[in-house]
Write a structure and sequence with these properties.
about 130 residues; alpha+beta; Cytidine Deaminase, domain 2; five-stranded mixed β-sheet; 4 helices; globular; binds tetrahydrodeoxyuridine
Length: about 130
């Protein structure tokens, strides 16, 4: 799977965000173990804390399809200036289903800006292994 398809899926998902309050649409696309892509976008709410992030939506889509491993994830947000890296909570959400070396591709509306590994974004992390 070329990164290009995953990046394009994240950018397309960004266009489907429901973000009337922040006006900051974010899209996420997950590549699973079978080579399928699962997408999500941020979905805000008039009761602000109830809104959810793009990564959480994409993870929910992956889980509902029956998959449990994130092989790669692309996140697209912003105008291509600052990096739209996953928020702290989403780094932990990704951690649940990904390995330390899982690529996290940060994108703007025009494509890839910078690639990280999950461990670079969430070093010395707590995860499912800690619970045995
Ligand atoms: N947002 C995401 O969807 N993912 C992130 O990792 C960063 C922030 C959303 C949440 C909110 O709807 C908007 O971006 C502004 O914070």
């Amino acid at each position: 799977m070329a990164d290009e398809a995953l990046i394009k899926a994240a950018i397309t998902a960004m266009g489907r965000a429901y973000a009337p309050y922040s006006k900051f649409p974010v899209g996420a696309a997950i590549l699973d173990q079978d080579g399928a892509i699962h997408v999500g976008a941020n979905i805000e709410n008039a009761a602000y804390p109830v809104g959810n992030c793009a990564e959480a939506s994409a993870i929910a889509a992956m889980i509902m399809s029956g998959q449990k491993r994130i092989m790669k994830i692309a996140v697209a947000g912003g105008d291509g200036d600052l990096l739209c890296t996953p928020c702290g909570a989403c780094r932990q959400r990704i951690r649940e289903f990904a390995a330390a070396d899982t690529p996290v591709l940060i994108c703007g509306p025009d494509g890839l800006q910078q690639g990280f590994t999950l461990a670079e974004l969430l070093p010395a992390s707590f995860g499912p292994e800690n619970l045995g």
